[in-house]
From TrEMBL, chains A, B:
Name of the protein: CSC1/OSCA1-like 7TM region domain-containing protein
Keyword Transmembrane attached: yes
Domain of life: Eukaryota
Domain CSC1/OSCA1-like 7TM region: 117-384
CSC1/OSCA1-like cytosolic domain ranges (all copies): 34-104
GO cellular component term of the entry, any: plasma membrane
Signal peptide, first to last residue: 1-27
Transmembrane segments: 115-138, 178-197, 209-229, 302-321, 327-344, 365-386
GO MF annotations in UniProt: calcium-activated cation channel activity
InterPro entries reported in the protein's UniProt record: Csc1-like, CSC1/OSCA1-like_7TM, CSC1/OSCA1-like_cyt
Protein's organism: Carpinus fangiana
Keyword vocabulary terms for this entry: Calcium, Ion channel, Ion transport, Membrane, Signal, Transmembrane, Transmembrane helix, Transport
Length: 475, 475
């Protein structure tokens, strides 16, 4: 797999040759020559295949393999049981969808995988804790007064009356929003290094990290003053005073969060529809890397790792303020209705399905809602304490315990269904396949589907996979 | 199973009749009559079997079953995989040894099992936290002055010079030791209600609860002054000051723990050899419940739930004091050598093997040692802080993190081997059995072994199981 770039360099060269050939041929319209060139291409393909096989022979074998079973039943049994007495020597997992496999991560040896994971978790938590530092630094530098000094054309803004004061007021907020907009992509980049075997797992990991980032840097930083590190230290040294501190500051910040929900609803969803980030990225790409970028206007999949944490944060804010400041709830309902309309449109018409998520996000969203409920109940404990109602405060504690016990129950009752393919279902599906005679066909399909990308037969005459097909033909 | 006492009442009655019959017959020495009476007995046995079957038909079926597989391979696969899509509707586990099965717990429906577990954990933690209250209460009542008033014969002690002062001095300590001696049995009684499917699991549960009890009530209560509840509250409100508080009090209590190790070594092991508790219990039993108790001087199994926590506590004390007060270590080595000699003797000659533990205690002892190392490292952090060496104190924190990470590694590397029977081993053992032709024999044995006790054929002519056989015949 380390030699991939070598082949990768050959393919565009052949592609270029092929394209020039096609142009020449259409000009001359000579059928005989077309077949001649196609034969030549076929020869090139043969050459490439030969190179691929040589690489496979030369490279050391990876300690990863896709094993294809004749029945779902056998696969489910093998995936769920410990095969070797050394539990780390032979690990079996259900394979992800073929288009969902993260081939890059499969090449990482299992021994050093924990290191990758620790590095990713460490860097994500460092980003979460010290996020405020670069933001305040940039906010300090990018003041309008200083901008005028360093970038004289910015003077032009002063010609329009009122614009300069708006800029001065909004600039820090825009910088903060810009940083928060970039964070999900940074987290996704980190999660890609985490050695997950599938792209969906990478996205789920990124989704988790972004959610905790938002809870820390949007919810807690807005509610409690001071840096996040101070807050964590304070909570560790005086955990008993945490509920009352949370309660007093939560009730003081109700107005801020109404504004937050409104702003996020109006600006966030219009951003989602207009996709300015993608447009800017494409503009930069096409101007920097040349015209090649323009030839592949890929369809993207729904960025779950950006959308789910944002909406979960709104759920959290709604939960915490449901009792403290119920005036926030109508705004939240408006936010969710708008979000429903926007995302139904986006999912149907804008984004492409790159792989099936199979409801794998559900346990995580359940966890986010649980965190919201727990925060709400802690706030209630503090609030009743502040209002000098110790009886109400103490009787909220069992409620908190019940929430935690309900979580334990859900873990036992529902979580296994997300991790294991039950033998009953496997056998039932096998029987259905045997009845309809699909068993052989499925088996054939599977063998072809899990071929690694570097060994796939090169075929110039067929179009690329549907996910990379442009919406509008760019001839 | 609810009708068990009914049958239980029949059996002794028949036994009594049988014994009187035997006496009469040996007097007359009439072979013909013996065979006649044996036929009658056979009839009784038939009657009992019939009753048993009627009960089984009348009773609702229990939702528990032992399923016997033709190969270890199949059993291992079935035990490790999720069979039904509802993970709590069909739970599979490897069956314990036949003599290790806890038939009483199997009758508890799975739905209310979590309730049992919560009740057991709650009562065990209440006992741990509030243990000091009854002890101090009894110590307050049982003063020698008061004893003389309420129990005049105690005056006799005063006739021997010096004895009364020894009594006054030792009485509180004896009461404390007595309470601590009873606790393991109380914990074992609680663990029996916890609904474990095997006696070994019950003992492991009791072992855990006793260890935490000892750490709380012997280590922490001796080290830190004040009640355990105060200590827990203090640790929660000011977790940051915990290491320094622990360090300062640990170094002050070194002498106490040297005495503790010496006393526990000398008195504990001599108690173990002389078994006064068992003797007193038997004396009480035989005088209270009549002569029936004397007829069954059962052999007991090694009480792991009493011994392992005691020795683990000594390991913990040794770990914590290894750096603070190394003078304790020679005493500890003496303690372990003495313990080795005593327990080798006890295991070989005194206790009986009721079931194989199969090394199931190992992960728990590993955990206890880990707790000891963590406590040691926390003490070190506090101690370096007290000695005004912040650099040393801070550089001990990564050590603590490494300990925790090592624990995570061990959990992944070694723990699965204790929970799952690996398919490789199962297949290898199956092949060995097939080669030696033991497969059929094993299968036959298994079917007979897992017969519930209420359905076992009653047989008066054979002796009882070996675990209940008296060492000395009591004719």
């Amino acid at each position: 797999m380390a030699r991939m770039p070598h082949i990768g360099a050959i393919i565009p060269w052949i592609l270029l040759q092929y394209l020039t050939l096609v142009e020449v041929l259409t000009a001359r319209e000579d059928a005989v020559k077309i077949s001649l060139q196609e034969e030549k291409l076929q020869l090139f393909c043969e050459k490439i295949r030969q190179l691929q096989h040589e690489i496979v022979i030369k490279e050391q074998e990876l300690p990863v393999a896709f094993v294809i079973f004749k029945s779902r039943w056998g696969a489910a049994l093998a995936a769920q049981s410990q095969l070797h007495s050394h539990p780390l020597l032979w690990i079996t997992k259900m394979a992800p969808e073929p288009r969902d496999v993260s081939w890059r991560s499969l090449a990482i040896p299992y021994r050093i995988l924990p290191l990758y994971k620790i590095v990713v978790v460490l860097s994500a938590s460092l980003l979460t804790i010290f996020f405020a530092i670069p933001v305040t630094a940039v906010q300090g530098i990018a003041k309008f007064e200083k901008l005028k000094k360093w970038f004289p054309p910015a003077m032009a803004v002063e010609l329009i009356p009122g614009l300069s004061s708006i800029l001065t007021g909004y600039l820090p907020s825009v910088i903060l929003k810009g940083f928060i907009y970039i964070v999900p992509f940074a987290m996704f980049g980190m999660a890609k290094l985490g050695g997950c075997i599938s792209k969906s797992k990478e996205e789920i990991k990124a989704c988790n990290m972004v959610f905790y980032f938002l809870v820390g840097n949007v919810f807690f930083l807005s509610v409690l003053s001071g840096s996040l590190l101070d807050e964590i230290g304070e909570s560790f040294t005086h955990p008993k005073s945490f509920p009352s501190r949370l309660a007093s500051s939560v009730s003081a910040q109700a107005d801020f969060f109404i504004t937050y929900i409104l702003t996020d609803g109006l600006s966030g969803f219009s951003f989602e529809i207009l996709q300015p980030g993608l447009l800017i990225w494409h503009a930069i790409k096409s101007n920097t890397f040349g015209r090649r970028g323009e030839k592949n206007p890929y369809l993207y999949s729904l960025p779950y790792f950006r959308i789910i944490p944002m909406i979960s944060l709104s759920v959290l804010i709604g939960m915490v303020y449901a009792v403290v400041a119920p005036l926030l709830l109508p705004f939240l309902i408006g936010y969710f209705c708008l979000g429903y309309v926007v995302y139904i449109n986006q999912i149907e018409d804008v984004y492409d399905t790159v792989y099936e998520t199979c409801g794998e996000y559900w346990p995580y969203i359940h966890l986010y809602i649980l965190i919201a409920i727990i925060l709400m109940q802690i706030t209630m404990i503090g609030l009743f304490g502040l209002k000098a109602k110790p009886a109400a405060s103490i009787s909220t504690i069992p409620l908190l315990l019940f929430t935690l016990m309900f979580n334990e129950y859900c873990k036992k009752r529902f979580l296994p269904s997300f991790h294991h393919y039950s033998i009953q279902n496997a056998v039932e599906n096998d029987e259905l396949d045997v009845k309809s005679g699909q068993m052989e066909v499925n088996h054939e399909n599977v063998i072809n589907a899990y071929c690694p990308p570097c060994l796939r037969p090169v075929n110039f005459l067929e179009s690329d996979s549907s996910s990379k097909q442009p919406l509008v033909s760019s001839s």
